[in-house]
Amino acid sequence: MWVSDKWEDYELLDCSDGERLERWGDRILIRPDPQVIWDTRKTDPRWRKADARYERSKTGGGAWDKRALPESWQIGYGNLVFNVKPMNFKHTGIFPEQASNWEYAMEKIRTAGRPISVLNLFAYTGAATVAALSAGASVCHVDAARGMVQWAKENAAASGVADMPVRWIVDDCGKFVEREIRRGHKYDAIIMDPPSYGRGPGGEIWKLEQNLTPFVRLCGRVLSDTPLFVIINSYTTGLAPATLTYVAQTTFGKQGGKAESQELGLSVTATGLPLPCGAACRVEF
């Protein structure tokens, strides 16, 4: 498991009975997590004094119970700064378990010894974009949601990398990659965080189990002749990390890539045990 254990502004304090107790900076949140199927004693007093809790509805969805929480606040990871806020579907705008991927990408970029161009697809609020920019790469950031791209710009500004070479693109990722192929544009590294399920702007349905393999193969056509790495993330329940390895290796192995996949995780302070939080595949060339 790749565990993100270098955080100072984020901490997974405890988890029990389908919920996480988390510290985001100086704010305490309780959020649901279906992976937490155990029921242990909630001895940490912050379970009862959290600043906000996301309550799931029996009819679907849910809502935040904000006892004492600002509309947004900032947390840092090394020299990176992110704006976080409570959103629908329990999210905050940052997935802290992705920090191990940020570290991996930054190290590869810094030690490449040459300019690196990165394509970040399904790029959300831009944490990976900000990390790559801070390491000295140029980045093309693509997401279909205009609000998420604006949020990513704000994170870049907060981290002091807004003036770095970056393109902010609001577009369907598949259609954008197809246009880049026609334009002859190439990238040295690709990061992608495709959803388990989604709808495109024209009503197109995306299902990761059906669409991931052809999409990954499509992306292989925009890799440069001297690729550096590819990162593929998955939060699809039941999809084994080894499945990502198979998809990636059969695609990028032809270009000299070697794929490795692991679960992503966060260490739980109360127990010292890692909580699984999705999976990722890294392809090195």
Largest sheet: 8 strands, mixed
Strand content: 25-35%
Radius of gyration, in angstroms, nearest whole number: 19 Å
Q: Give the fraction of residues assigned to helices.
A: 10-25%
Q: Tally the helices: what do you get?
A: 6
Shape: globular
Secondary-structure element order, as H and E? EEEEEEEEHEHEHEHEEEHEHEE
**Largest sheet strand order:** 1-16-17-15-12-9-10-11
Mean of pLDDT: 95
Gap between N and C termini: 21 Å
The CATH superfamily of the largest domain is known as: Vaccinia Virus protein VP39
Q: Work out the count of structural domains.
A: 2
Task: Kindly identify the CATH topology of the largest domain.
Answer: Rossmann fold
Count of beta strands: 17
What can you tell me about this protein's structure?
- This protein is an alpha/beta fold and 285 residues long.
- Helix content is 24%, strand content 33%.
- The chain has six helices and 17 strands.
- The protein has helices at 99-110, 127-134, 146-158, 173-183, 208-219, 241-252; strands spanning 2-3, 10-16, 19-24, 27-32, 52-56, 62-66, 73-77, 80-84, 117-121, 138-143, 166-170, 189-192, 197-199, 205-207, 229-234, 258-267, 274-284.
- The strands form four sheets. An eight-stranded mixed sheet has the order 1-16-17-15-12-9-10-11. A five-stranded mixed sheet has the order 2-3-4-5-6, with no helix packed on it. A two-stranded antiparallel sheet has the order 7-8.
- Strand 2 (10-16) and strand 3 (19-24) form a beta hairpin.
- Helix 1 runs parallel beside helix 2 (127-134) and helix 5 (208-219) runs parallel beside helix 6.
- The mean pLDDT is 95.
